């Protein structure tokens, strides 16, 4: 856990993020510029969204995470007189997020994304942050359940071989790590063998050229 600008957590995180956003930054900017959303594009806040990151993506606050959003839904959770609930279920690369915000003890679908690949050994955590406007929300409890799932040997191997979060049919930029600098010996060997190869290529070229000239003279006579 490292503090940062993405709802209190670090940017370019590695893992799954589920965000409950209470302020429409993009909409307010559109209003300030005297522009309007089309009906099919506008989102109503508070808004729940999900994002999978392999450490290469930045969360776009100006657009409320729209470019990297896997899915989302409106969740009116302000000023309620009863508890609200959110369930995040991950089974066989299938991510499902549901909510109970009406006080009826009934789950409502919010996000469903197949093909989500999450490695083992990750951690659960919660964070928050505020801007110029303050908002008060309490996390009453966080309950974790390990689901019993039957997998074939092939599915178990595929699950075990996941090393970075990803989503099928969604191209995430690959992480690039800088190469370590070459040592003096390695640099010397590279230069040495490059020179040997160059000399060898020149010698072979001269031999082939002389043979070509000799064959040309024989044809002439």
Automatic annotation (TrEMBL):
Pfam families: Lectin_leg-like (PF03388)
Keywords: Membrane, Signal, Transmembrane, Transmembrane helix
MF term (GO), any: D-mannose binding
Transmembrane segments: 185-209
Localization in the cell: Membrane
Superkingdom of the source species: Eukaryota
A Gene Ontology biological process term: endoplasmic reticulum to Golgi vesicle-mediated transport
Protein's membrane topology: Single-pass type I membrane protein
Residue intervals of the L-type lectin-like domain: 1-147
SUPFAM superfamilies with a match to the protein in the record: Concanavalin A-like lectins/glucanases (SSF49899)
GO CC entries: COPII-coated ER to Golgi transport vesicle; endoplasmic reticulum membrane; endoplasmic reticulum-Golgi intermediate compartment; Golgi membrane
Main location: membrane
Cross-referenced PROSITE patterns: L_LECTIN_LIKE
Name listed for the protein in its UniProt record: VIP36-like protein isoform X3
UniProt organism field: Carlito syrichta
């Amino acid at each position: 856990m490292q503090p940062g600008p993405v709802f209190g957590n670090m940017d370019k995180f590695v893992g799954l993020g589920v965000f409950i956003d209470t302020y429409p930054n993009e909409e307010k900017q559109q209003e300030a510029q005297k522009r309007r959303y089309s009906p099919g594009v506008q989102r109503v806040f508070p808004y729940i969204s999900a994002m999978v990151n392999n450490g290469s993506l930045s969360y776009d606050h100006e657009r409320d995470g729209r470019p990297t959003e896997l899915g989302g839904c409106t969740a009116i959770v302000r000023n309620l007189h009863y508890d609200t609930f959110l369930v995040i279920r991950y089974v066989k690369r299938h991510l499902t997020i549901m909510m109970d915000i009406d006080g009826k003890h009934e789950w409502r679908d919010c996000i469903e994304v197949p093909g989500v690949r999450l490695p083992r050994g990750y951690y659960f955590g919660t964070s928050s942050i505020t801007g110029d406007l303050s908002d008060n929300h309490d996390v009453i409890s966080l309950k974790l359940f390990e689901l019993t799932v039957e997998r074939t040997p092939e599915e178990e191997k595929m699950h075990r071989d996941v090393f970075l979060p990803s989503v099928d049919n969604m191209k995430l930029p690959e992480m690039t790590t800088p190469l370590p600098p070459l040592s003096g010996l390695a640099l010397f060997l590279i230069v040495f063998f490059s020179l040997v190869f160059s000399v060898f290529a020149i010698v072979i070229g001269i031999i082939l050229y002389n043979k070509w000239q000799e064959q040309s003279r024989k044809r002439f006579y």
